[in-house]
Amino acid sequence: MAPHDLEALNRALFLAIDATPGSPGWLIGTASAIANGLIWSIPLLLVCLWLTGDTYRRETALKVCVITLAALGVNQLIGLAWQHPRPFMIGLGHTYLAHAADSSFPSDHGTVFASVSITLLLRGMKRLGAAMIAGGVAVAWARIFLGVHFPLDMIGAVCVAAVVHTAIAPLWRRAGAPVTRLAVIAHRRLLAAPIRYGWLRP
Questions:
Q1: Mean pLDDT of 162-184
Q2: What is the pTM of this model?
Q3: Which of 4, 33, 18 shows the shortest CA–CA distance to 151?
């Protein structure tokens, strides 16, 4: 498929999903809450994994952080190398969510959810991974529906997350356990008082 054909398909799919002036207010409100709020489930999940989990869960939380931050870094490089305008920057569709006029591809929100989902699934945490996939799909729909992203921005986010995970996985097999041990030592020193009182796991 030629680049202009792919872009035409991208725009057509966007217009099929994008909200219109006739869209119900409650649906736009729900989409706004999902688009802006669901991302906070990620740090909450990581904190819970770290504070309540065993060594395996703590290593998983650290790996999620590394994969996600690396993938977001790749997004920045892509944005610097190739600027793709958001729909509202070219007057396409309708926009119901305030957003900076920066490059749309790939979606940072989509990349975060994809990075977390892939890592959790490949670490054997299928239920948590499935929940994150569901959250990612909801966020992807909401941000397209509200007019700040194209569908291919979300597909690109999944691709970035998958490539970054594949690149980092061999390194993590060597460094994951030592990094986790160091992090646990720091955790026990910094939070010695609440651990001593039994408020937190050591």
A1: 96
A2: 0.94
A3: 18
Per the listing, tokens 């892939």 go with 118
For residue 199, give the 3-state DSSP assignment: coil
Contact predicate 202/188, CB 8 Å: yes
Q: Is the pLDDT of residue 1 over 70?
A: no
Closest CA to 153 of 110, 113, 106, 112: 106
**Residue environment code for 72-103, b if the CB has 16+ CB neighbours within 10 A, otherwise e:** bebbeebbeeeebebbbbeebbbbbbebeeeb
Q: Measuring CA to CA, which residue among 61, 39, 74 is closest to residue 159?
A: 74
At 99-132, the pLDDT tens digits run 999 999 999 999 999 999 999 999 999 999 999 9
DSSP, collapsed to helix, strand or coil, labels residue 9 as helix
d(CA 176, CA 190): 21
Contact between 174 and 181 (Cβ < 8 Å): no
- What is the Cα–Cα distance from 135 to 112, expressed in whole angstroms? 11
Closest CA relative to residue 78, chosen from 163, 165, 169, 172: 163
For residue 170, the surrounding DSSP H or E stretch is helix 151-190
**Residue 9, both tokens:** 């398909």
